[in-house]
Specification:
- Helix content is 45%, strand content 15%.
- The chain is an alpha/beta fold and 258 residues long.
- It has one domain: TIM Barrel (Alpha-Beta Barrel).
- The strands form two sheets. It has an eight-stranded parallel beta sheet with strand order 9-8-7-6-5-4-1-10.
- α2 packs across α3.
- It starts with 5 loop residues before the first helix and ends in a 12-residue tail after the last helix.
């Protein structure tokens, strides 16, 4: 496994970051600021992740040919919407300029034993996304809890056409964990498909990010984490990344390893 300095880890984490604002009271001014923050002196974040109502605004602010992708959420955060409504939400988001769709599975139905609800939802939104829009599927692992069920939800999402599987909405008490990440990345490896992984919620430091990168490299390969296969969903991680890259935060006593 490759060893990296803390600063190198921070640079990689920046390139993999979905800089997020999904606050219920988010404003247009905050979206403008998010777009600006995503473009740093050290490089851009991979994407911003925002509410659907702000997509058109973000596309205008970022301008044509921007390198920061626009991700949005559907069936979010409850996972309880009807497929037809989620499909309509997705179509509107893509029409407004979304590059990526983060879809919550109907995890409550799944927990009640209805696997078909997951397959049907993911398949329908896969069809709406086509080949041009990235589909990231949120399992809400902190609510599923059971390792066997997390594995099964991962398999169902992958089989139904997910481009990524994502741990969490960030809206429940337990969000990304290394335990869930381990299960999900192993499911990706077992599938043999090019599917990415996105931990989201509670990742606030470069040291946290290094743990997830290390896990991904161990299960997959040292060069596996890249924007097409790995993202961090976070709102606060950028502050620590910039502190490390600018040298205002002291490096840890041991180099980060991932």
């Amino acid at each position: 496994m490759t060893n990296h300095t803390h600063k190198e880890t921070a640079a990689v984490a920046l390139s993999l970051l979905d800089l997020t604002n999904l606050k219920d009271d988010c404003t247009e001014a905050q979206i403008d600021a998010l777009c600006e923050r995503a473009q740093t002196p050290f490089g851009n974040s991979a994407a911003i992740c925002i509410w659907p109502r702000f997509i058109a605004r973000a596309r205008t602010v970022l301008g044509k040919g921007h390198k920061v992708r626009i991700a949005t959420v559907v069936n979010f955060p409850s996972g309880d919407m009807e497929i037809a409504d989620v499909a309509a939400e997705t179509r509107e988001a893509i029409a407004d300029g979304a590059d990526e769709i983060d879809l919550v599975i109907p995890y409550r139905k799944f927990l009640a034993g209805n696997e078909k609800s997951v397959t049907d939802m993911v398949s329908a939104i896969r069809a709406e996304c086509g080949s041009g829009t990235l589909l990231k599927v949120i399992l809400e692992t902190g609510e599923i809890k059971d390792p066997t069920l997390i594995r099964r939800a991962s398999e169902l999402a992958i089989e139904a056409g997910a481009d990524f599987i994502k741990t969490s909405t960030g809206k429940v008490s337990v969000n990304a964990t290394l335990e869930a990440a381990d299960i999900m990345i192993r499911a990706i490896r077992q599938s043999g498909r090019k599917v990415g992984f996105k931990p989201a919620g509670g990742i606030g430091s470069v040291a946290d990010a290094a743990l997830y990168l290390s896990l991904a490299e161990t299960i997959m390969t040292p060069d596996w984490p890249m924007p097409s296969t790995f993202r961090f969903g976070a709102s606060g991680l950028l502050d620590d990344i910039l502190a490390v890259l600018s040298g205002t935060q002291p490096a840890p006593t041991q180099a980060s390893s991932y």
